[in-house]
């Protein structure tokens, strides 16, 4: 029961990484607690996936099916309905993974490397402290999506969606298709948190009201949700209670952000990037624990699954290099400057071409992304239609970046 690499998570990231490793001749095991590989894709029955990665438009289950087929053809071994309950680094630098399943009981597996690809989870009502009783009818957007798309059950008859993340926007449209009235989408920021195409296709096309710079301050109802109370926010994000208003509904869906699943990583001693809430990784997508890699939404929350798969493929190539004895030497830090929430990876090798991913914090129609080293601009890229919901990707050739580099985003 020894493997070259054990990948935790059989979503798009785990499958893409495993395929690359297996194609290079590595013994690969992917472990997932669900009974079906594919991760969250299996409940995303809408289309819009795969345009970049597969060059065709697919639904979530279709994208997942293609990924599973590629992985199995490459020789990847899947352990489904299995939960990793612990990872321990051994004295020789390898890893022992403790796995629990109904089929095999408790197993202790060994691997030369580990890939974290567990994805992310949704923030809940409790995470943002919305006041009110504990009535029935309160869901995360993902839980309502699974209830509707996988189990065929309606969450209610009328809904309010809190937060404008992509899952929330897509669920607004899905609920309307099922005859459920969506009375409002409420977002605390002055801009939406989801992709622009989802705002247009899911809200504008269905005349669903969108309230920006607005907060839900209370949920009414004792046995079942009856209504929510919302209030506009002032410039310091404090609710203007005198302008509050009530929206009737029997269901509330929260789409208020995603958090990387980092419990196993923390137990292993992986250093966490406070800006992404995922692992801090170097140019090889290796964490602070040598031999442990990370990719996908557990590293940082992506906007498109196509980017998840591409990033995981690169991480897979890095795993292959690591197993062959390669280690990064002479790395420098990549620092996020003004108007950027984070940059991934955190370090880079100047001698190699690098792909960086950024999350902007500002809204610009025209902007420029700059790389500055020792006070001098060494690289720039002009951008159009910059939004916090959409990642910025920058491919920078070898030999351009020097020393520690700070990236800046400025309006043109």
Q: Please summarize the sheet with the most strands.
A: 7 strands, mixed
Radius of gyration: 22 Å
Distance between the termini: 57 Å
Gross morphology is globular
**Which structural class do the helices and strands define?**
alpha/beta
Count all strands and give the number. Answer: 28
Number of helical elements: 8
**Strand percent estimate:** 35-45%
- State the share of residues found in helices, binned by percent: 10-25%
The averaged pLDDT comes out at 96
Q: Enumerate the spans where pLDDT stays under 50 for 5 or more consecutive residues.
A: none
Summary tags:
five-stranded parallel β-sheet; 412 residues; 8 helices; alpha/beta
Characterization of this structure:
The chain is of the alpha/beta class and 412 residues long. It is built from 8 helices and 28 strands. The strands form 7 sheets. Strands 1, 2, 5, 6, 7, 8 and 20 form a 7-stranded mixed β-sheet that branches. It has a 5-stranded parallel β-sheet with strand order 11-18-12-13-14. Helix 5 (166-177) links the parallel strand 12 (158-162) and strand 13 (181-186). Helix 1 (12-23) packs parallel to helix 2 and helix 4 (141-149) packs parallel to helix 5 (166-177). The radius of gyration is 22 Å and the shape is globular. The N and C termini lie far apart (57 Å). The mean pLDDT is 96.
At a glance:
The protein is α/β, with parallel strands linked by helices. The protein contains 8 helices and 28 strands. The strands form 7 sheets. Strands 1, 2, 5, 6, 7, 8 and 20 form a 7-stranded mixed sheet that branches. It has a 5-stranded parallel sheet with strand order 11-18-12-13-14.
